[in-house]
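thoughts on these tokens:
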Amino acid sequence: MSQSNVRGAESRPWKQPGAIFEIARAARIEVPGSGAKRTIHCPFHDDQWPSAFLSDSNVFYCSVCTPGRGLGLKAFAQALGVAGPPRGRFEPSRAAPAPRTEAPAFTASDAARVWQMAYERVRNDATLAVDRPVYDYLAHRGILGAWEESAFGVLAECMDLPKAVAWWPGAGYRIVAPLYDATGRLSSIQARAIVPVRTKVQFPKGSRTAGTVFANRSGLEVLRGTWKGPRRVLLAEGLSDSLALSVVSLMPVVSAPGTGPAVHSIGPWASGYEVYLALDQDEAGRRALAPTARQAFEQRVERVFEVGWPGGCKDACEVVERRGMADLVRFLDAIAEGSHAGR
């Protein structure tokens, strides 16, 4: 590059390819040292697995925080509190976040205690009136039927919750569901907000959630090795889809707690099964398909199918919202009967 071009690039720091990498490093985010796209732990939510990436075209994308869109360089820097350089080295502004400190451990016992309280609240008729916003939210999305499957619990500010999750109910994270390890033992939880928030779901800070999954009753039997039915399992993603599918699927349902964790959700339990990958039909879901399928074959599955949601819908919940629960039932019944294998 000529000297004049170098001077021109220095005078336009926001347009330098890869400038976003230096913005991230200025905010003390670990960025891999090579590649046009670099996977990172998202700085905007409690990211147990790397679910975000930066590109040398100066775009930030997170499958949890910015699904379907991304942040440009200036918006990313502003969100981090990093002052953009006029040139040369990027320096954090006074508002830059402090280095992360080790979060207190959130144990499987903590998860079991929270789940027990949340589950008991759902079964308590005396709390129905005060918890109406939760049930209205689920009814609006067409997935209130998950109540009969005991697939979710309800959190409230009056509960004696562990410190790591005590703030959830007050911030709108009222729906909670258990996460199981590869052997079907409850090991963590995830909460879902019922109000508009930037981050729709939360894991407990300090929890060990790698390789955990949601599971309906038959899905738990698959994890525990006690399932006696046809060796087919539906692998979905996300708490809301897990609730929708737990109501209507004839097949056992196991759901990753997000797109990024999908590849880690398939363990030895899948050996000998036909696995139907019912991931979201969006950019993040499509990127996750190939590595998740490879992981499935490494676990010696019989076959892998991609489930393409009907009518151009993105996921199971969108099928319910746009086409009705009956249409989702017909679609899943056809898969379970072997007359439709997705794509």
About this structure: The longest helix spans residues 283-298. DSSP finds ten helices and 15 strands in the chain. The domain at 104-211 is CATH 3.90.980.10 (DNA primase DNAg catalytic core, N-terminal domain).
